[in-house]
Amino acid sequence: MVCYATYMELSDSQKYDVFEARDETYSGRFFMAVKTTGIFCRPGCPARTPKRENCEFYPNAESAVEAGYRACKRCHPLGLPGETSALIRALINLVETDPERRWSEQDLKVRGIDPSTARRHFKSRFGMTFSTYVRQRRLALARENLVQGESVIQAQLAAGFESPSGFRAAFSKTFGTPPNKAGLAPLMVEWLDTPLGPMIVICSDEAVYLTEFTVRKNLSGQFEKLVKVYDRPILPGRTKITDAVEEQITAYFGGNLQSFDLPLHPTGTDFQRKVWDALCDIPFGQTRSYGELAIAIGNEKAFRAVASSNARNGLAIIIPCHRVINTGGKLGGYAGGLAKKQWLLDHEAKFAL
What is the number of H-type helices and E-type strands within the chain? Predict the structure, then answer.
């Protein structure tokens, strides 16, 4: 286990473990240089981790450069950790100022943005290219216009589709229904920046459906489950609930909020929901064992089922599954990674009343 710590507090072995886990928690806190390639990287770099014996570590990028290493072209260690997010925010703001526009590569170049950089950053963050994001936003806008009473041809033109057949095909593929049957409102997915890395938030206009760190495995499976269970597509965008989630998540990480007040829509069985309700009763700054949680729901023999339900909580931090540890004090598991779990527990201990 690697706990959140400073450069000097970690051994080289622990630093290597951070890189092997691609843990962005430590991004900008130290750097790894590879003797065989002459390249240095920041924690979280997506490149294949080299052999341990070929690595050495530096407290900052400047010292790695002075030692003769050059910056990795995949993780850009000479930039600030938030630069990628700043570019993404700028691109999203660009789209939202004129969501009906079909933004081209030339439009980006005119604004001093390299299209290949935009494509790479969007692919890394959202799992889709910038052009696909723009297209999905135009389709979401078209659906909103149809629900508000516009004709199909009006919605088609407003979304920037010249071909009626092309519009019908794209709309049906995205929403599972033709434009003349607009169907249920989509769930909207947004990526929020946190001190522990990007967090995916999926909301409707009424509730929060999912909050997960992007490092969690099988996120695509969770997306597919939501689409199947609720028969609603998931598109990029925000709702008023997204705004509330961002406000409260920011307050939590700032040490100014200890319990969330959000409309939740967890996806699970009756037993799982019972476990998740019990999780919400664990006070800020405290922990419980899986056995204690089983007793809390009235079934002391169900600690294994409790642990399984805990792992399937899709509302990270809001439903505080990170507060459950093994008997004896060991951390146990955490879908977002043990380094994040330790950080969250340390954070809450610091600000607990």
Answer: 14, 10
Question: What is the topology classification, in CATH, of domain 12-71?
Answer: DNA Methylphosphotriester Repair Domain (3.40.10)
Neighbouring CB atoms inside 10 A of 269's CB total 10
Measured CA to CA, the distance from residue 102 to residue 142 in angstroms comes to: 13
Q: In what order do the strands lie in the sheet containing 199-203? A: 208-213, 199-203, 187-192, 234-236
Which pairs count as long-range contacts for 177-184, CB under 8 Å and 24+ apart, including other chains?
179/142, 179/146, 179/152, 179/155, 180/152, 182/143, 182/146, 182/147, 184/230, 184/231, 184/232
Catalytic positions are 41, 321
- Domain 270-351: assigned CATH number: 1.10.10.10
Give the whole-angstrom CA distance, residue 92 versus residue 84.
12
Quote the tokens at residue 45.
Answer: 């770099």
Domain formed by 83-175, architecture: Orthogonal Bundle (1.10)
Pairing of strands 324-325, 288-289: parallel
Nearest to 99 by CA among 154, 141, 54: 141
- Amino acid present at 321: C
pLDDT digits (tens, 9 = 90+) for 201-224: 999 999 999 999 876 555 667 777
pLDDT in tens, 85-139: 678 778 888 887 887 788 888 888 888 888 888 887 777 666 677 888 888 778 8
Q: Is 249 helix (H, G, I), strand (E, B) or coil?
A: helix
186: left (phi over 0), alpha (psi -120 to 50) or beta: beta
